[in-house]
Amino acid sequence: MEKYVEVFKQQYPFTMLTESQYDRVFTDATVNSYKKNQFIFHEDEKEEESDIYFVLNGLAKNILHRSNGKQLSIRYYYPGDLVGIMMMLTSGEMKFSVQALEETKAIRFKRERFVEIMSENQAFSNIVLEGISNLMKSLYHEVKYKTSELDDSSYDRDLFKQRVVSYSETPTIIHHNASVTEAVKMMKDEKAGGLIVCGDDQELIGVFNYQDLILAYLQEDFNGRIEEYLNEEPYAVNDQDFIYDALSYLKHNPAAIIPVLHKQKVVGLLRQTSFLKMQNSIYFDLRYQIGKANSLEELTSLSPRYNRAFQQFVAQLLDDNMFAYDICELISSYNDELHKQILHLAEEDMVEEGYGTPPINYCFIVMGSEGRKEQAFSTDQDNGMILDDYEHLENKGEIDTFFKIFTEKVNYMLETCGFPLCSGGIMAKEKKWRKSLQQWHTSIQEWLEKMDAEEIRDFTIFMDFRPIVGDFSLAYDLREFVTQKIQRSLTLQQLLMKDTLRFRVPVQPFGRIHGTGRSKVLNLKKGAIMQIVNAVRIYTIKYGIDDVNTIKRLETLRKHERFHPRDTENAKLALHRLLSFRLKRNLQQIQLQETLNNDISVMSLSKEERKVLRESLLIAKRLQQVLELSYNRNRVV
Question: pTM here?
Fold first, then answer.
């Protein structure tokens, strides 16, 4: 270490330190070596454990872990770069991992000593802050362009439509007469990278941040008032402004905090990290927490049924008029992550209890609304398991026992997380829904030959299966087998038609809605949503389409000219509106701590809402009538 101490005295920006400061910053510093692919530090580390690193040689990269499981590299670190400053300035809010790409050596400085020297030496501090500017600007570009599913022009158009209120965070406000010491304490207690300074009526006066704090410390003005360190005209935005302007400002002022105003009063703030939830995040931090959860209790607190932050996120999307079927897909994807982690915990339990790891490959599948990615808050479990063929193995009895115990764990863990057990028993813990691939083939063949009206509903739920954990090739094999078999089964199509027509859409041709009781209660799922879903499914079966999601099925039918474009758009609109009613009702039931269901009181709706509901029901009824005409004409679909 001593040889580095002497060398660094001649290295910029350490040449700007006094002899005393130089000795102190190297006190307790260590030289660490890292092998290729080894983490210099990981974002899972606690804030108090993070330090500052100076790269001596080698190459490292900065990694952001995306909610979809992919890793995104924002920049590289070369010899002479400081690592960890940005995390320090954002009080741990902006967290990344840094990984060595080759043999790398770095000096690790104690963060407390580094901050102490920065507070004493303004010139050194300015150089350090300037050094991270490029990284912050890189983050701006990453935020703006990280959605791979959209081209640049469409994403820019989307930015112009977004409002500040959608991304505003709760502000940390301090009175302008407060002292620097009081500001430091508040920043520490609230873990805030900056404070919004207001007057008596919460009107904006300025912003107090780390650079202001360092300036105050340089002047040893600990009891001075913070308003003496504020810029005269702070940049601010109104809550209904377009987000693009704020993003443009942060691009050129990456360490800034932007106050958000409503009628001249401070109601929120924006910073670089506010935009990490733009597009496809599905609450990035919540999904990331699911992946880190080590207990069922942690997962339960993160489930949609019990997590208030996720519920608020969904409510915001509804307020922003996002298509409800896209929101349901978002919820389903979030639930997929919960399922994956539950299966992981269940596997760990099996090992701890002496059963070992899974003896053969398996694929856990979800069915019904989760399989179609159309899940709301009020839904029970519909799942199963496909096992690799094992009947020829000598230990097949042990394999049966393993997966019986394993699936029971999974189903009861899911119940704890807010997914009720299926009243019809469609769960992986039941032998009927846990079979080898060959057994599934045999069962499907028997179903198609002997199926009666009682079993048709179970088979309808099964047809919408989708793999989420395990060997997906097992599910793909089964999907191909099922698609071919059911397309040729006219008997199955007739049974599906009869089952669909059993439940009539509760609306008359002129729009009068039928409901039960004085408040005219309507079951949205049975009365309308499933009529659209079932009708579209029957058409996809007829034409051998293997899509599972209803919207994708509609688009495929339109593309192959099996559905008129107008009918396709009408069905999508009706599904969006019905799912919106369902989601809003579920959120209301959660808030009132009521039992979740799919019932809605027609009388509780406004005149405009009843009009929207009536139009949606009429579209569902038209789909049902078209199917019925086709059925009566051909006796098949």
Answer: 0.60
Over the stretch 439-483, which tens digit does the pLDDT of each residue have? 999 999 988 888 776 688 888 889 999 999 988 889 999 999 998
Contact of 492 with 451, CB cutoff 8 Å: yes
Query: Which sign does the torsion angle of CA 502, 506, 508, 511 carry?
Result: negative
- Could you tell me which of 131, 138, 120 has the C-alpha nearest to residue 61? 138
Mean of pLDDT values over 192-205: 88
* Residue 125 to residue 17: CA distance in whole angstroms: 10
- Average pLDDT score over residue span 304-314: 90
Q: Please enumerate in sequence order all residues whose Cβ is within 8 A of that of 429, keeping only pairs 6 or more positions apart, or say none.
A: 404, 407, 408, 410, 411
How far is Cα of residue 274 from the mean position of the Cα atoms in its chain? Answer: 15
Nearest to 238 by CA among 262, 258, 257: 262
Interval 203-211 mean pLDDT: 86
Bridge partners of residue 196, in order along the sequence: 173, 207
**Mean pLDDT to the nearest integer, 138-152:** 40
Distance, in Å, from the CA atom of 568 to the CA atom of 590, rounded to the nearest integer, reads 33
606 in helix, strand or coil?
A: coil
CB atoms within 10 A of CB 328: 28
The dihedral over CA atoms of 104, 105, 111, 112, expressed in degrees to the nearest 10, equals 170
Residue pair 131/85 in contact (Cβ under 8 Å)? The answer is yes
d(CA 465, CA 383): 8
Contact between 384 and 452 under an 8 Å Cβ cutoff? The reply is: no
